[in-house]
Design brief:
It contains two helices and two strands, in the order αββα. It has 62 residues and is an alpha+beta fold. The longest helix has 13 residues.
Length: 62
């Protein structure tokens, strides 16, 4: 039973690794709000010819 629970826990925790877009696919549009309350839309920046780099980081990442 412990082995089964370990396998289920491992698969559940690793499922995010398969949640990726295929190479060459278009990123979905999204809107987010910054710390100043201003909203930003991904496609509006791309329509203006800008490049967008998203950096997902946290203080515990090192």
């Amino acid at each position: 039973m412990k082995r089964l629970l370990s396998i289920v826990a491992f698969v559940a925790l690793q499922s995010h690794a398969w949640a990726q877009l295929p190479d060459g696919s278009v990123a979905p549009d999204f809107t987010m709000t910054d710390i100043y309350g201003e909203t930003h839309n991904l496609y509006s920046y791309l329509d203006e010819g800008m490049s967008v780099i998203l950096n997902f980081s946290a203080v515990w990442c090192g």
